[in-house]
Amino acid sequence: VLPDIVLRQEPESDGELRIEPQGVTLTLYISLGQDSAVVPDVTGKSFQIADIELRTEGFLVKFTPEVSATVGKDTVIRTEPASGELAPKGSTVELFYSTGPEYVVMPGLQGLPYDQALSLLEENSLLLGGESSISGETIPDNDKYVIKQSPEAGGKYPPNTLVVITVGTAKNLYDYLNPTTVPEEAVMLEVRGLTFAKAMEEMEPLGVGSYKMVRWNPATTLDPNKAEDRTKIYIIEQKPEPGTRFKPSEGVTLTYGSAADLEEYRNPTTTTTTTTTPSTTEATTTVPSTTEPDPTEPEEP
Question: Where do the structural domains in the chain lie, given as residue ranges?
Fold first, then answer.
């Protein structure tokens, strides 16, 4: 078609249509002298899809990114020429697409399941910059929660900011949000004569960090690390002494033995020959306070 030739008009006419010229707009579509096409409406579509549609109509595409707080990332804002306009095939259509807002508010991830946290980062144009386990152990995917994040929630950051998270199990999360308060100092209880299981139970509220266990009788085979032995082990001596102030975090030292050892300690056997008191310097062991005692408790001798 030669240039400047009217291709069509709106409103159309069959030669008999009569109109009042005043107030009526007559639109003429003029030939540009080469194959032309109407620019399709790609507003609101992803720029990848828009690119395909424009090229299908015979246009070249120039991509121009723009910051937008109202149009989603990678979504077309507008084109030039605008949609609906006639443009020569082979000409360039400039496609303006959103890069998202200039800044995003950091969402709160703490307490969220891992998958939900990742989805929230993606929705806010943020990236996962790394993760670590609060316990140092591998966290199973079906019990994985966000415990901490950096940067913290609430601040404004550019899109694509890296966010580092600390993950753990549901129990790890609960323990982190509800820390046990351990007193800096406490008054030592009297635990001599109690079984080790009972002594641990009595001192648990004090927040004792650990128990250094010393054998009174080197020949004893009782092991304070075994739950089944703790109800057979009796406390013979203790440090700190009852009634003294101490730091629970530093632990306590308990000398232990069997029921027979406790009886011998309380009522030494009197003989005509010299007796030797069993040594308390052999075989020490440290028992962490987090080990649960056996609930079975025999009567004290």
Answer: 36-98, 104-177, 186-266
What number does CATH give the domain 104-177? 3.30.10.20
pLDDT digits (tens, 9 = 90+) for 185-219: 889 999 999 999 999 999 988 888 899 999 999 99
- The pTM of this model reads 0.41
Residue in this structure with the two tokens 């707009």, named with its chain if needed? 25
Q: Which fold has domain 36-98?
A: Trypsin Inhibitor V; Chain A (3.30.10)
Q: Which residue, among 127, 186, 118, has the nearest Cα to 160 in the 3D structure?
A: 127
In this chain, the answer to whether the domains covering 104-177 and 186-266 adopt an identical fold is yes
Can you tell me the distance from the alpha carbon of 93 to that of 60, in angstroms, rounded to the nearest whole number?
6
Q: Which of 254, 255, 245 is nearest to 211 (CA)?
A: 254
Question: Which residues touch 129 (CB under 8 Å, ≥6 apart)?
Answer: 162, 163, 164
Q: Which two tokens stand for residue 89?
A: 């095939």
Read off the tokens for 107: 């969402």
Omega before residue 11 within 30° of 0, cis: yes
CA angle 240, 244, 248 (to 5 degrees): 60
